[in-house]
């Protein structure tokens, strides 16, 4: 069975041959040829803009002293830079199995480098006549991969755009959901003057004198419907009255008043909380600080023994919040946690929203799929339909568990999603993406209110409006080259299981293979050290804990693992050539584990439970975390073999050797 998978892996190797520059620069010729070709093409474009003009840089200056001195200086500094860059982390190499990075897909890399020559600025179409459309197209490609409708003829229609990374896309999730949740209260005093039937518009969820709680607990689609009805009613009014009412709505919004004055105006409404799993990325804490909600309002939901958000705990917390009439702005599910690669039960979060919505507690759902988002390609047919679980299971040994499958199938019910092309999209850093299920939410964000369609030439459809990107997103000026890179990559590798999904497929094969090999390594080490994979991988990330046989102390074990990790890391003063393999590290904290999971972990590692405790300090012979080696298996060449051993076999051998060398009596 393993052999079969390895053969399959080798076939995939062949398929991937032209996709990357390669560990050895194998594809240097095609890369060089294309870069040169498109560079020359760019120069001709410059020359042909107004060829009759005299070139502003005179030819004779090229031989002047000052010119030559400048070239010297430039070369010297570039030389220094590239010399220093040799100490970079060698992401491109199959020996690199550390952080979430790998070799870059050639179409994206070339599109990025070539488009940079044109320097488009995607803040608005005027500064990027070509690449803004590519950005919106890339957004639709990603939205479709997540299962959202992207046909404007159907409602709701999703949209997506690119950000500098997952962190900003997460901020944007909160920014969008805040706009939607807080908006209805700003309408409250104006609605009677517009003679709108609020009960009908909210499908019975609201009446004019409903408490603040009810106004806050509306779903995104209802809020959007309200806004549209208000816009229409305003349109019908004489200009002066329309402007006065618009002004009143806008000045009652949280975006205008700020948290403090808004809540002072509605004292019966408690400030909202945001729920994330205990394993959430730290950008969520930053987002809460930045938005002024405060990190104290970020509630961590406990996780299961699989390091996934615990739906029972979520249900209980929602119950408590409902009891306290404490509003929930959003529940965040993570699709591929940064530390363990685990998948939160998005389907359960959606089901719990249904349940609590009926009790009057409603919230936005944001899926943080910065890491795992691109894996959705593996779940899609070329036409966009979701593949059957059985068909997927046939391809793998363990993947995908039915929990993982259900989570991917449920993304389409989320309101907003983060996904990072610069992670599993194999694109250069500087590109994340934000997706909203209902693109009309942008009407709540626009820097000038879009109540009046005939104002400032805004009498156009959403498609056209969205090309003024900067009005609806957090960032301003931004590289159109990233849009070009993302779009071209998705064109060359459509986001389905036959194309882009092949990359995900091989990384999962690698993970399953490594998982099995690590069990064998653990067997070989028996009696000398205990090697444990504490959480079975949901995706393509594996963590490993190692404890010398006989050691019972967690701090001693952590030091031991740190010693191993020292051999697997890059530092600014250590040439990567001096390393055999590259890994990363993480901790699993005492407080992140349930008592049962804690007990299992210390038992498997042969540790004394007393040395693993909350707030434990090394001086007291205890620790509040267990050190883990962390491996991200993105590189598609891990099955590539020299002398009969592939990189994963070789890593296991190397790890075994490192462990044996580190043992106290070695
Ligand atoms: C990486 C990551 C982020 C942050 O994304 P950046 O692109 O590093 O800003 C957020 N959430 C998760 C789950 C991640 O893995």
From TrEMBL:
Pfam families per the UniProt record, alphabetical: Pyridoxal_deC, tyr_de_CO2_C
Keywords attached to this entry: Lyase, Pyridoxal phosphate
Gene3D superfamilies: Type I PLP-dependent aspartate aminotransferase-like (Major domain) (3.40.640.10)
Alphabetical list of InterPro entries matching this protein: GrpII_AminoAcid_Decarb (IPR050477), PyrdxlP-dep_de-COase (IPR002129), PyrdxlP-dep_Trfase (IPR015424), PyrdxlP-dep_Trfase_major (IPR015421), TyrDC_C (IPR049373)
Residue ranges constituting the L-tyrosine decarboxylase C-terminal domain according to the UniProt record: 513-657
Co-factor requirement: pyridoxal 5'-phosphate
Sites bearing N6-(pyridoxal phosphate)lysine, chain numbering: 423
One term of GO molecular function: carbon-carbon lyase activity
Gene Ontology biological process terms from the UniProt entry: carboxylic acid metabolic process
This protein's name: Pyridoxal-dependent decarboxylase
């Amino acid at each position: 069975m393993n052999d079969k998978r390895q053969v399959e892996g080798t076939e995939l190797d062949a398929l991937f041959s032209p996709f990357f520059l390669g560990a050895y620069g194998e594809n240097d010729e095609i890369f060089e040829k294309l870069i040169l070709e498109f560079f020359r093409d760019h120069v001709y474009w410059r020359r042909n803009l107004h060829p009759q003009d005299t070139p502003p840089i005179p030819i004779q200056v090229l031989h002047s002293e000052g010119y030559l001195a400048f070239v010297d200086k430039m070369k010297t500094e570039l030389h220094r830079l590239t010399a220093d860059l040799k100490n970079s982390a060698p992401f491109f190499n199959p020996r690199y199995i550390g952080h979430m990075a790998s070799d870059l897909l050639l179409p994206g890399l070339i599109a990025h480098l070539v488009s940079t020559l044109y320097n488009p600025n995607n803040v608005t179409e005027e500064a990027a006549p070509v690449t803004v459309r590519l950005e919106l197209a890339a957004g639709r490609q990603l939205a479709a991969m997540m299962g959202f409708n992207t046909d404007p003829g159907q409602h709701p229609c999703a949209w997506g755009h690119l950000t500098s990374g997952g962190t900003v896309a997460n901020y944007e999730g909160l920014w969008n959901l805040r706009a939607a949740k807080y908006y209805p209260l700003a309408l409250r005093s104006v609605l009677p003057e517009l003679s709108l039937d609020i009960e009908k518009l909210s499908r019975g969820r609201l009446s004019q004198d409903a408490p603040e709680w009810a106004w806050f607990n509306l779903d995104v689609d209802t809020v959007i419907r309200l806004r549209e009805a208000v816009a229409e009613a305003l349109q019908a009014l004489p200009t002066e009255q329309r402007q006065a009412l618009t002004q009143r709505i806008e000045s009652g919004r949280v975006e205008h008043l700020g948290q403090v004055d808004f809540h002072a105006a509605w004292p019966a409404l408690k400030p909202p909380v945001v729920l994330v799993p205990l394993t959430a990325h730290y950008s969520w804490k930053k987002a809460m600080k930045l938005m002024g909600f405060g990190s104290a309002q970020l509630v961590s939901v406990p996780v299961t023994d699989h390091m996934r958000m615990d739906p029972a705990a979520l249900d209980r917390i929602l119950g408590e919040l409902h009891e306290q009439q404490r509003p929930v702005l959003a529940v965040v599910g993570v699709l591929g946690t940064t530390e363990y690669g685990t998948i939160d039960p998005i389907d359960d979060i959606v089901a719990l929203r249904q349940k609590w919505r009926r009790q009057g507690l409603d919230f936005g759902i944001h899926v943080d799929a910065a890491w795992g988002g691109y894996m959705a390609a593996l779940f899609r047919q070329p036409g966009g339909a979701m593949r059957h679980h059985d068909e997927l299971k046939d391809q793998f040994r363990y993947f995908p568990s039915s929990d993982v499958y259900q989570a991917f199938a449920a993304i389409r019910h989320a309101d907003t999603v983060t996904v990072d092309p610069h992670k599993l999209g194999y694109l250069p850093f500087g590109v994340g993406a934000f997706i909203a299920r209902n693109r009309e939410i942008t009407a709540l964000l626009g820097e000038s209110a879009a109540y009046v369609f005939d104002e400032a030439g805004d009498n156009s459809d959403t498609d056209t409006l969205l090309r003024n990107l900067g009005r609806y997103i957090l960032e301003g000026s931004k590289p159109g080259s990233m849009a070009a890179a993302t779009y071209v990559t998705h064109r060359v590798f459509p986001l389905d299981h036959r194309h882009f999904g092949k990359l995900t497929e091989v990384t999962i094969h690698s993970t399953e293979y490594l998982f099995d090999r690590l069990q064998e390594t653990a067997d070989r080490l028996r009696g000398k050290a205990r090697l444990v994979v504490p959480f079975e991988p949901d995706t393509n990330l594996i963590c490993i804990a190692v404890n010398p046989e006989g050691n019972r102390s967690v701090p001693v074990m952590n030091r031991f693992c740190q010693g191993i990790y020292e051999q697997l890391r890059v530092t600014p003063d250590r040439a990567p050539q001096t390393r055999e393999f590259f890994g990363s590290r993480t901790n699993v904290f005492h407080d992140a584990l349930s008592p049962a999971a804690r007990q299992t972990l210390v038992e498997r590692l042969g540790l004394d439970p007393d040395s693993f405790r909350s707030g434990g300090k090394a001086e007291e012979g205890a620790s509040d975390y267990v050190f883990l080696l962390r491996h991200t298996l993105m590189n598609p060449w891990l099955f590539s073999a020299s002398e009969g051993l592939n990189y994963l076999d070789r890593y296991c051998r190397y790890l075994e050797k490192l462990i044996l060398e580190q043992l106290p009596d070695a």
